[in-house]
Task: structure prediction
Amino acid sequence: MTSLSSIRSKDRYPNEDGSDAIDMFPSVIRGFLKEYRPSRMPFFRRLANLPFSVASDPILLGQIHLIYQSAMHATRAAVYYLPHLNNPALRKRKLRILIDDDGLPKGDTHHYQLTQAFLNIGAKFLLKDEEFGDLEELCGHLDAETARFVRLAQELYGRSLGPWCAVEVLSVDWMRALAEAISVHFPEFINEPYFRECFSQRVEERHADESLAVTQIVLKGRPELLPETLRDARMIAAALDGVWTHLDRIVRNTRRRSRTTVRSDAAKRVL
Result:
């Protein structure tokens, strides 16, 4: 895999304008799937392996919804502030992606679709949809890892295109991993519009291709942006691991409490 360090310095570019390194940009970002593939994280496997009595706990499902929806909300809000896409052609391409998230038929959005999917499996929500607004206020409801991701998304999306590319490239993997893990317990979950439409229409793959193509256009005009673009992409990918780490902690704690309750109930029956 081509490493970040191998193309970081302009002194290592094969030619003065760095065009070869910019041509390699998509493969470097796609290489993040080896290093930061979300489905490698224990959370997804541990969630799938829970007993149904634990996996169907409304509070657990509500906690998963809060953390996952918060991370997704942060990226959906931040994408409106992407830099370097100011000419009409690039604004038009950016708008198509915004429409896929926030301009679905009949006023629907990915945010509302995700909430409905969790409502259908009995989640007890910790925040209402419209409380997912200002990101700093949202962080007041979050753990340290998820809050760090939310704040980084706001900061990094506003200064370079790398984080956008990284998230889009990784997104189909985590969406499929989440859908499959929860569908072990709720088989229809993977058929919810939030997942079904993205998978059948290859929405995330299209977004990944488009983010990389648009960013290459920008980098070819401004090659000096490449080091920052790659650095910020890696930062957001690493921070995303923290979201899955905290979700895994939630699952482990819920499982531990359920075992304690079972033992306590058994002891009471003996007495």
Observations:
- The longest helix spans residues 226-270.
- The radius of gyration is 20 Å.
- Confidence is low (pLDDT under 50) at residues 1-17.
